[in-house]
Amino acid sequence: MGKRIAIVEDDPTIRANYMDALCKHGYEVSAYADRPHAIAAFRMRLPDLALLDIGLGTEVDGGFALCQELRALSASVPILFLTARDSDFDAVSGLRMGADDYLTKNVSLPHLLARVSALFRRAELLQQPDCLEDFLERGQLRIDMKRFAVTWGGKPVELTLTEFWIVHALAKFPGHVKGREQLMGEAHIVVDDSTITSHVKRVRRKFSAVDPGFDCVDTVYGLGYRWRIAD
Amino acid sequence: MMAVPSPVPAARASRVGLSIRAKLVLVTLVLMIIPWVGYKYIKTMEHLLRDNQVQAVVATGRAIAAALQDRPRLLELLRAPAVAGDAAVAPRPVSEEIELLMTGLARTGSRIWIVDRQLRLLAVAGSLQTTPVSVSGTLAFGPLERAVRALLRLLVDQMQEPAIRTAEEVIPNDVVFGGRQIERALDGTPSWRLRTGPDNRTAILTAVHPLWVGDTVVGAAVVEETTQAILSFSNRALEQLAAVTLIVFVVAALTLFFFASRMSSRLRRLRDEAENAIDSQGRVRGLVAGERARDEIGDLSRGFSTMLERLAQYNDYLEHMASRLSHELRTPIAVVRSSLDNLRLQSLPGDAKIYVERANEGLIRLDTILTRMSEATRLEQLVRESGRELFDARAVLAGCVNGYASVYPGCRFQLKAAVQPVFLNGAPDLFVQMLDKLAANAADFSSGYGPVEISFLCTTNEATLTFSNSGPPLPAGMQGRLFESMVSMRTASKPGEPHLGLGLYIVRLIAEFHGGRVAAMNRTDGSGVVFELRFPVAR
């Protein structure tokens, strides 16, 4: 059964391009140009994954509103934000939107596809009782590779897909320093240094919310980051 | 933008040629015409008075002549002195009559004498002596009076000390015998003239009138007066004029001087503030001098403020150009990228693949530009929102420099730092970003002649960080502008890599976030460039 993806994007060319690419990979794609059409369709039938542009036509934050409405309809549908603005990253993370990840619009299609498939995998495994488990444990950290979920000391930590990949890249080899380029590669993004810095900062913040004494992510100035080996 | 504490602008030497004060002084010199006019007025009055005097003296002469005319016996009696005996009794009353007549006609200060046809002096009455006019007390202030008089003696030729006593007690012979006036009078024509007294200082007015008996002239009456009264009056008037003028001028000059000084200082302050309102990095500060004054200077100041506001707005617009561009460009770039990505997924003939790849390369470069521009924007945001903490900048620097050796293999880095930790108040991540940019800049421009020298030294209040690399020197005038957004000096050191001139702009933003200042200058020996950053040390 083909997975259904809904794209909500006001620029027609981008919308068409994404639709073509996703269709080629075997997904069923429905595309909408604005919020009213999209939410009407969602009410009739929920998609399996939603790709939302934030600026929709005249509504500058239309994507946020749409996300909230969609979340009201379903708590588990994976949602990916696409944004043209630089300032949205922190804004998006600050709002508890419940989105699974956010990207800038000029993300390359292979990266986008990598995320889509990862999100589908996670969604599947969350729904089914798992038989094969793949865990990575480092001290209090427990990374569920199949479900793309992270727990710290037993408590779940809500991370976006990008942040999950970053934590995984660091914790895979604790004590090793990972440069920013490497982290970018593992997270399937191409961004500038300060974006990586923001992501890491957000990771720290999310872990600290669960455990105020968290300090496993070390900054090695000039080189990158590393996961501190817990004693 | 961050508000940067900047030093108070130093007052600069004035470039003015002729200051307002000097101009006002020159203008007031025009008012010098007033005392000159006064002087002319006094002189005119003096002439009028002298004319008056002449008329009066001539009239006296005429009156005497009229009183004595047709009285030939009077003259004979006058001629013949009193003889003892029979003539003694009868002429007495007639002489007395003449004496009374003469004295009655004589005015104060005029001398009247009568001569006959043979120029024999028949009678004299009155004297030329004037009662000294008291000249003290015309001016209230003694020293002022003396000063004024001294000044006037220098300026005015005709100022003479009025003689207290005339030196002419006796009618000199040459007057009687030498003067042509008496001869003319004896011929029947009244006349007058002005002669100088024996001391060459006084002027004596002489009027001569013939005495008629019937149709013959039997003698002449001479009336003499000095012009001293008028002279002293004129002097007094001049003194008063001079004193008043002097006082008025001094007061007016002082007032104008203070007014001009105040005006000058207000303008100078406005000029200083206007000059320093835009600093070398294009940041605009407001004007405060005289902005509430209600005259033209206040108006000018307000005009400047308006102009500066507009300039600041425009600068703001330019500075945010990068972020606006990045925002606008993102969607079209996304269109191109997604289209190219889709194209690559198709099966293409060999040629087409090459073109697709080339297009992709171009796109990557565009994307890099976009990334850099958004970096600057995001940094401005971060700088606004970042919290601060105390961190050891020396340790951070040391760690970074260690890393640079591997990131820039072709370039050596040499660090000279203080031994103790140096604490700054800021954000370590941003500090690292700034160091990265400086290191990248130094490595790119370094000619390889010697290592990149980094030093971090600390005094009690200030820490100085310098990055010095060998290479081409900075052109003159660029030092301030390097740190502006999108100003670049490169001539494509690495061809193929786009350069936007944002790196040093980011350095400046972060330095200012930490309360510091940046400056770029050439090395003293011209072999390279030094970037110097100063930070306030946190306690």
Q: Describe it for me?
A:
- The complex is a heterodimer of chains A (231) and B (539).
- By secondary structure, chain A is of the alpha/beta class.
- Chain A has helices at residues 12-24, 35-44, 62-73, 88-94, 109-127, 161-172, 180-186, 193-210; strands at 4-8, 28-32, 49-53, 79-83, 101-104, 135-138, 141-144, 149-152, 155-157, 177-178, 217-220, 224-227.
- Chain A has two domains: 4-127, Rossmann fold (3-Layer(aba) Sandwich); 135-227, Arc Repressor Mutant, subunit A (Orthogonal Bundle).
- In chain A, the strands form three sheets. Chain A has a five-stranded parallel beta sheet with strand order 2-1-3-4-5, with helices on both faces. Chain A has a four-stranded antiparallel beta sheet with strand order 6-7-8-9, covered by helices on one side. Chain A has a three-stranded antiparallel beta sheet with strand order 10-12-11.
- In chain A, β6 and β7 form a beta hairpin.
- Chain A is globular.
- Among the domains of chain B are: 24-243, PAS domain (Beta-Lactamase), CATH 3.30.450.20; 387-539, Histidine kinase-like ATPase, C-terminal domain (Heat Shock Protein 90), CATH 3.30.565.
- The longest helix of chain B has 49 residues, at 228-276.
- In chain B, 27% of the residues are buried.
- Classes of the chains: A alpha/beta (231), B alpha+beta (539).
- Chains A and B meet through α1 and α8 of A and α11, α12, α13 and α14 of B.
